[in-house]
């Protein structure tokens, strides 16, 4: 898998110190990561995780409305994304507790920026090594490296919104992705009022990926809930 595909993974950074959040987010951006969002509390982190669907999380242990261990346990109820603890609590029992809950790594503050970036990169490459940027559907395939749909001899470019919507659907292939989640993926933190726009983008996506857009078999509607994308086995 190409390195630039890893750098497009969504990273959620949770820490109660605003300056540290900004510093780490800046480090990640300078290293080429394009999608980083931050939260300063358990509640905000959970809200972001449920709506934005990150691919990776960096968690502090001490948070104003709980702790990172509890946050990880609550995250694990709906996602298996890799997690790294970045915290001032360096006691052995804290490390053991964090790793025992399923964290992939544990770094104690203060830390070396290069080490943090190295560990994040290692976890992402290990966790997503089997991921394929070419997703095959019934009548077409989606090439996320080139942001286009391959349909017979045609190559149909995806708009930025179509790309984000399809990426969210592919990440949850075979599962329902709610309208709110798709609006959040395409329009960011304030997705309200975009339901009609989403329907328009879904229609255009179907025109690109389906053999018969009027009778979709890959991107189907789940009435009252959202949409499902069915991908072909490799």
From TrEMBL:
Any one GO biological process: regulation of DNA-templated transcription
Residues modified as 4-aspartylphosphate: 60
Positions of the DNA-binding region: 132-231
UniProt keyword Phosphoprotein present: yes
OmpR/PhoB-type domain residues: 132-231
Pfam annotation, one family: Response_reg
UniProt keyword DNA-binding present: yes
InterPro entries: CheY-like_superfamily, OmpR/PhoB-type_DNA-bd, Sig_transdc_resp-reg_C-effctor, Sig_transdc_resp-reg_receiver, WalR-like, WH-like_DNA-bd_sf
PROSITE patterns per UniProt: OMPR_PHOB, RESPONSE_REGULATORY
Record-level Gene Ontology MF annotations: phosphorelay response regulator activity; transcription cis-regulatory region binding
Gene Ontology cellular-component terms listed: cytosol; protein-DNA complex
Keywords for this protein: DNA-binding, Phosphoprotein, Transcription, Transcription regulation
Domain Response regulatory: 10-124
SUPFAM superfamilies to which the protein is assigned, alphabetical: C-terminal effector domain of the bipartite response regulators (SSF46894), CheY-like (SSF52172)
Physiological role: May play the central regulatory role in sporulation. It may be an element of the effector pathway responsible for the activation of sporulation genes in response to nutritional stress. Spo0A may act in concert with spo0H (a sigma factor) to control the expression of some genes that are critical to the sporulation process.
Name of this chain's protein: Stage 0 sporulation protein A homolog
Species, as recorded: Candidatus Limivivens intestinipullorum
